[in-house]
Amino acid sequence: MEGIDIAHIRSQFPILNRTVWNKPLVYLDSAATSFTPQCVVDEITRVYTTCKANVHRGVHSLSQEATDLQEATRECVREFINASSTQEIIFTRGTTEAINLVSSSYGRLLENGDEIIVTTMEHHANIVPWQLLGSRKRIILRVVPIKKDGTLDLEAYQSLFNERTKLVAVCHVSNVLGTVNPIKDIIKEAHQYNVPVLVDGAQAISHIKVDVQDLDADFYAFSAHKMYGPTGVGVLYGKKHLLKMMPPYQGGGEMIGTVDFKKTTYAELPFKFEAGTPDFVGIAAFKKAIEFMQSIGIENIAAYEHELLAYATAEMEKIPNMRIFGTAPQKSGVVSFLIGNEHHYDLGMLLDKLGVEVRTGHHCAQPLMHALSIEGTVRASFAAYNTREEIDVFIAALKRVSAMLG
Ligand code: PLP
Q1: DSSP character for 179?
Q2: First to last CA, the chain
Q3: Which of 39, 76, 171, 364 is catalytic?
Q4: Percent of all residues in the chain with a pLDDT value above 70, rounded to a whole number
Q5: What residue ranges do the domains of the chain occupy?
Q6: Is the bond leading into 270 cis (omega within 30 degrees of zero)?
Q7: Which end is more exposed in the chain, N or C (fewer Cβ atoms within 10 Å of the end residue's Cβ)?
Q8: What is the CATH number of domain 41-294?
Q9: pLDDT (tens digit, 9 = 90+) per residue, 381-406?
Q10: 404 Cα to the center of ligand 1, angstroms
Q11: How many A from CA of 163 to the centre of ligand 1?
C-alpha cells in the first residue's frame, strides 16, 4: 500500500522476529497493547543511562534535562491531539487512571440524583469509576443501548438527557466491536444540554486522527502503551475551564502552591493533577512513539489497518459457522468472533499453538457480553506492523482449529 513501507516498519520491532511454539509469531492483540519500536526502547535506555534525575525539583543540570524531556512530550501530545494549551495535557498512568481522575474530581462537583450517560459498549474502565462515585452519592447511570450491527442507538441516546444529566462518558472506538462512534455528533448533542463529554480514546488514538478542538471534546483519555509507547503512561486531555474548577485528584508533591497546616494552595494546571513523581522516563520515551506514528502518518496507518480489517473479515466470513460480533459501517481494526458454539478459550489456546496470538474473554466489557448474550469472544486486532501474509496464517489457523473442533 502507498504510504506504508511495511518492511521498514517491521524492521523497527525486534519482537516480531520471535517464535511461539516454534512457529513464527503472528501478533493480533495490539488492542490490548501494541508492540514498541526500537526508538522508544532506545530512548528509555538513553534516559536511564544519561539523565535520570527527578523532574521539576532541582536546579541541577540533570534534573533540568529530565524536566525538559517531560515537557517536550507534553508539547508533542498537545500538538498530536491539537489541544490549545499544554495546561490541558495531564500525564496519568493510563486511560483507566485518567477516567478515575475525572470521576474522583469532577465527581465531587455532582450532587445526589445527578445522572451520567454511558453506553452498553464501554470498557469497565469507563463504567466502574462512575459506579464507585455512586457508592458515595446517589448517582444514576443511564445506558445507551446498541443496535444489532454494534452501532449505538442514537435516538435512545437523545432521549436520555434531562436536567439531571451532568456528564456523558463514551468510547470513541469499542474495544470489542471495533465500532467507531460518531463522536462529534454525540458531543454536539450533549452540548445542546450544556453537558460535558468524556471520551475514552484508548482504542482510537493510534488508529484515527484525533483533534480535540474539532471534536469539541471536554475530556479525552488514552494510554501510551496502546500507541507503540511505554507502559505506565497515559494522558487526560481536559478543557482548561473544566480542569480549573475541578478539585485536585491526589495530594502530594508537585501539585501544591504552598503547604501549611492551616491552609494549602494548589499548583497551576496541569501540575495540580500530577501529584508525586511521574513515570518521567516513560513520558520522555512516549514522545518517540508519537514521532514514530507521525513518521508513517496516522491517516496512512488508518487506511492500511482498514485494508487488513476488510481482508480479514472477508476471509473469516468464508469459514463455516463464523459469528462476527460488530458489523458497523465504520469500524477500526478489531474483529471479535466465535465459531459455532466453541468456547473462546479453546479457540484462543489452539490458535496460540499455531503461533497466532489473539485475545479471548469478556475484554473488560461484561455488560456488552450480557447484551450480546455471550460469555466472551475471540478478538483479533491489527496494528501498522501486521501484514496480509499474517492474516493468511491467521485464516489458515482458524480453518485448522475449526476442523479440529469439528
Ligand atoms: N478503555 C478501552 C476502550 C480500552 O480498550 C482499554 C484497555 O484495553 C481501557 C479503557 C483501559 O486502558 P488502560 O488499561 O491502558 O488504562
Answers
A1: B
A2: 37
A3: 364
A4: 99
A5: 6-29+297-405, 41-294
A6: yes
A7: C
A8: 3.40.640.10
A9: 999 999 999 999 999 999 999 999 87
A10: 33
A11: 30
Q: Is 364 a catalytic residue?
A: yes
Whether 96 is in the pocket of ligand 1, judged by its Cβ within 6 Å, is yes
2 pLDDT band, cuts 50/70/90, is low
Tens-digit pLDDT profile for residues 299-330? 999 999 999 999 999 999 999 999 999 999 99
Separation CA 34–CA 231 (nearest Å) = 10
> Which residue puts its alpha carbon closest to atom 5 of ligand 1?
175
Pocket of ligand 1 contains residue 202 by CB under 6 Å: yes
- What is the Å distance from ligand 1's center to 95 Cα? 6
Residue 134: the pLDDT is 83
Chain segment 269-299, per-residue pLDDT in tens: 999 999 999 999 999 999 999 999 999 999 9
* 123 in contact with ligand 1, CB cutoff 6 A: yes
φ, ψ of residue 152 to 5 degrees: the values are -75, 145
Task: Give me 52's grid cell.
Answer: 535520570
Probe target for ligand 1 pocket from 177, 203, 219, 222, with the most ligand atoms within 8 Å of CB: 203
H/E element, 234: strand 234-238
pTM above 0.90, yes or no: yes
Angle at 371 between CA 104 and CA 30, to 5 degrees: 65
Domain 6-29+297-405, what fold? Answer: Aspartate Aminotransferase, domain 1 (3.90.1150)
